[in-house]
Amino acid sequence: MGQVQPLFASASTAAKLLDMRQSEFQRLVDSGCLPRGREIAPGMVRWPVDDLRKIVSGEAVDGGIDW
Predict the structure, then answer these.
(1) I want to staple 13 with a disulfide (CB 3.0 to 4.6 A). Which of 9, 22, 32, 54 is the partner?
(2) How far is Cα of residue 67 from the mean position of the Cα atoms in its chain?
(3) DSSP label of 48
(4) Would the CA dihedral through 43, 56, 15, 33 be positive or negative?
(5) Which are the contacts of 65, defined by CB distance < 8 A and separation ≥ 6?
(6) 3-52, pLDDT tens digit by residue?
(7) What letter would DSSP give residue 40?
(8) Is 16 helix (H, G, I), strand (E, B) or coil?
């Protein structure tokens, strides 16, 4: 069996996936540049890994990107 791919990431893991410090990640979330995590259980906030991938690839941008 292959490696397990995470469906959700904690704030610290999401920051690592985006190659930034957790404080940078949290600042971008707080300012609205990155989406807030989802509360999947009381007090447990996680970010969908697929959403993070879409942000990095540009798929999550409204209206597309013109380079």
Answers:
(1) 9
(2) 23
(3) E
(4) negative
(5) 58
(6) 988 899 999 999 999 999 999 999 999 998 899 999 999 999 999 999 99
(7) E
(8) helix
